[in-house]
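Morning!

This is the sequence you dropped in the shared folder:
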Amino acid sequence: MGSVEALVAHIQGLSANPGEIAHLHAILKQSEETLRVQASRLVPFIEQLDPSIHSLGYLYLLEAYSSGPIASENISSFLACVIGFINFCSAEQIRVAPEKFISVCKRFKDQVILHQVPLQGVAPLRTAVRKLQSSYEQLTALHPDFLLLCLLSKCYKAGTSILDDVVLEIDQPKDFFLYCYYGGMINIGLKRFPKALECLHNVVTAPMTTINAIAIEAYKKYILVALIHLGQILLLPKYTASTLLRSLKSYAQPYVDLATCYATGKFSDLEAFIQTNMEKFKSDNNLGLVKQVLSSLYKRNIQRLTQTYLTLSLQDIANAVHLNSSKEAELRVLQMIQDGDIFATINQKDGMVSFHEDPEQYKTCEMIDQIDSSIQRLMALSKKLTAIDEHISCDPAYVSKIGRERPRFDFDDFDSVPHKFL
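The structure's back. Tokens below.
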């Protein structure tokens, strides 16, 4: 144990000086095997360190301790130790050994899930993500873990603090797939269907060389969310990976057939189809979304009526879209007016509904500010893409690869004067 004591002394002596952190890191790396061997006896030494001052050393000892089995009676103290460390550690020091920090946080996440207390991990992992990031544009390995805890604890709003960031830097493809997939599910939970559709679309259209189970599950939810939000599914863009396009029908055929049935607008047929495929939707954990698809067909059929009629009675609406009563039709129309899905007024005296055009003239101060904000975001994104393109164009590996792939031309292959001037 003397070597661990000496290591703790090094940690206490070198941590306060930023210029010595690199030297301390080298010492800690050389001591990894010793720390692994002594993992079960490290708690007293961890208690001698201050997480805010000795962050790097504290991290190495905590990572070694958590690498071994943790007794059930020590779980509470372990969770409290990790939470305290995440909250008070120095971001500059833990970024020296990010893989260690990620390892500790993932083991912490595993423990809160195992002991069915995911809510305890939400706030600490959000802090961990921010401390690990070099900028808000960076996607870290902890993003998916944080979103997973938000899902399991049904703490959806906490996830939006991360999901609303514009991610432009990605290290590992799997992190991106899980981040967008979990993000889509959180937005579904919040009924932010446009955002959910965007997240799921990003999963399905991301580059991949082999079939991806995450992308398949995302595509199933993508179809359901598209039907709820848009009333149809859009064709996937040309840049979607061919390996995925070839496999979608075989893996997601019931969902494709559901969309086909939905397009007919026949409520009874859609209801029968869902009943036939109930077990499939249930086993995919998508039955709740499928029921929302069924409910949304009422809305779509009412919207179709607005394209044909200027006025219509509530009873006629109920008959046309197969609702049980005029009262139910009134409730649905009122909800659609409130949500902005249709523009109409109800005359309750005679039970008539009058449909109107969209009153938005796009000339209010609020709308101008919204348009200006969107333009500014697009300009910033365009500038960022240009910078990335220039950086890639100057990358030696990229230039070398392009040089090998392009055919060689002789000088005589090019005309020095354009034909139109001859």
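Headline: The chain is about 65% helix and 5% strand.

More detail when I'm at my desk.
O.
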